[in-house]
Amino acid sequence: MRITVNGRPLEVEGSKDLLTTCLSAGIEIPHFCWHGDLGSVGACRLCAVRVHDGPEDTEGRIEMACMTPVREGQRIEVMDPEAERFRARIVEWLMVNHPHDCAVCEEGGACHLQDMVVASGHHRRRAEVAKRTHRNQDHGPFLTQEMSRCIGCYRCLRFYRDYAGGRDFEVLGAHDRVWFGRTEPGALDSPFAGNLAEVCPTGVFDDRWWSRHYARPWDMAETPSICANCAVGCNITLFERGGTLRKVQNRTHGTINGSFLCDRGRFGALAAEAARPTHPTRKGAGILWTEAIEAARALVARGAVGIGSPRACLETNFALRRLVGEDRFFAGCSASEAALVARMTAILRQGPAGIAAIRDIERADAVLVLGEDLTGTAPRAALALRQAARGAERRLAAEKGVPEWMDAAVRIAGDEGRRSPVAVVTPLPDALDEVALWPLRRAPAEVGAFGQAVAAAFRGEEAAPEARAVAEALAAAEAPVVIAGAGLGLAGPAEAAAAIAAALGARARIALFPPEAGSLGLALLGGTGLERAVAELEAEPRPVILLDASLPDRAPAELVERLMAAATEVMLLDWLDGPLAPQADLLLPVTAPAETSGTYINHEGRAQRFFTGRPSELVPAWRLLAPLCGATETTLDEILAALAHDCPDLAAVCDAAPGAGATPVARLPARASGRTAFDLAGRLPEGQPRADAESALVWSMEGAQGLEAPPALRTRADRPGLHSASSAWLGTEGVGGPVRGGDPGVHLFAEGGSGAIHAGRGTPLEDLPGEGFRLLPLHDPFSASSADRASPPLAERASAPRLLLHPEDAAALGAAEGARLLIDGIAAPAPLSLDPSVPRGHLALSGARSHARFVTLEVAR
Question: What is the H or E stretch that residue 813 is in?
């Protein structure tokens, strides 16, 4: 389709609105209420332009670009004098009640309203009436609210309620006194509430942690990083000043997180600011680093065993494996979990179908979730599934002639609430039940059986009605997605997902979510679970090197106790003060993920690089481990080269980002206040900016800025006049497209794989039966691991521990509501709650991995 904008001819898609089309072509039109992922509602009227229907239309008319569809032959004039006056009056009316408090507003300098006011030329206040004011509300540890700054764009409500599915946030009032919030104060329920700080184009909602540790937006160093709090691998930006992490913000990735993060991803990196070990100790007593290194060398010389961690980056696990040898390197989790993640890796590599990224889940027209509580284990995937569930609504609206970008009209014309064929098969009621056409309950061991019944229905075999209905919906879909993971600790869901994907063929995609950010990388390095390590140590006691002070979170407590008892000495390298720290003979504190550089491999096999967001006196674990075996690698590039040499299958990780020798990229924006802002009245010595040997990023304003930087090193996509998070579209290939220059990261698995699973040559993993109560994990979307619980905002938001039993099981034990139980002889972390939705024979417990294990229960006396 051909149109003309400001005299410039354009070839454009015919399915978009004018505003999206112009922004995608690099033509800026002022706007407030429009958002690339939320569509158009025409609430603010700022995007007024003059539209001519064709060459014969010489007069044209003023229209709102966000509400005007693209038509063949249109001529659009953005700088038309009448349109400019219209926009100027809109801004002036908005500023009648907006406080003139930019000097004290957190958003000052990164505010979309500020940008638009400057762009419209509004610089003098004519109105002399008293400004409208509002009361603010406490929204918990994540957000502040300054309601008097609201301009009524409705973005907050459209994201929270319509996009993220939240139900405890509303708009109240009428006319020019609308108010956005809860009916009563309290933390917002949705695990995506933190996005309001970025969605809001003014300073109504802001990051509370940033408010407590405030620095001006232009004086913070910005570093690209990767969320380490689940296996999705969302891209984030870390903001630092004065050695403190001040803020975490979404970094657009067209395939993964797009414009939004979950709250765990937004606030998880702040665990680096928690109290934790900073000096080495031997048997609890502080020692010098020189003594610690000598003690570590002596321990390694005695033939140490290495226990890796699914929380650690690829380089750290590799450095430990190389130090102790491949035969003495083990995964820091139970054998069942290690085998499950290895099997999931094989399924993805061998390719029963293409691997589903988050964007693929959003665009799916039929989805089957087998056993995974996505809101707790992979929240960004849960948010994507909510968008997929609206497919039927959008299709019905399209049949009525309503385009997808007209979001509010789509919800009406599409019969809001109409559901796409989404099946959520879980043991317990799920947060996604409200968007599922089939919210199905099955006991953990029956989830895989249900999936196999769906696969059997594809083959024409007899199947239960529900399985047959799901199979028919997947078979009729053009882009079906099957999702499973390790949330139940069972192999059945992943095996069933592979069987279904193989039956669907090339058009299907599969998503398998490992437990943690480093799980897939650890599996690719090899190493069996903790049981074999314990058996070998009990047969031949040796020293042990641990990478995880929170190992009891990842393996049965009894097994960890045996490990610690069998080891002659224990050396621990970790940044968290976990439960094993006091038991370590030698403790070497290392950098947190936010303080180091490395690589994570996400659920789709995409290797992504993260970089040091906050300088630290500590060093990364991989840099401490390398010299202990006589290696000379001291930089990230060198350890990656060693990894590529020793593990040729992983050589591609070196291409995840440019090396330290690439063109320098500035962490500080060009408009930073300069050296005097960092001198602190002479309290800091003169000298060069801090050096970073791990990347091309520099701690100054010197170097490539914005879009000049490679995508993996890019910290921002703003330009003079557009500095807010609302301008993220500047950095993408069209609104909603990939990052300019290509989405960061490199895939390790070829599309389509080798076909071994598809051909039936894979070796399925079976779940073993047991006696007692099977453990059923309860996943908390705000606190999935010890690292989450270390983050001050997340710790404040985390739910209290829960322990649930079916009432009939409790009666058989002689336990009543509130009773205290012993799990394998150890006191349970919470009193008993009775819940008839818990499958019989199962113990639902929060904060625990399943390990596919069975436990004994008794009432504490």
Answer: helix 807-813
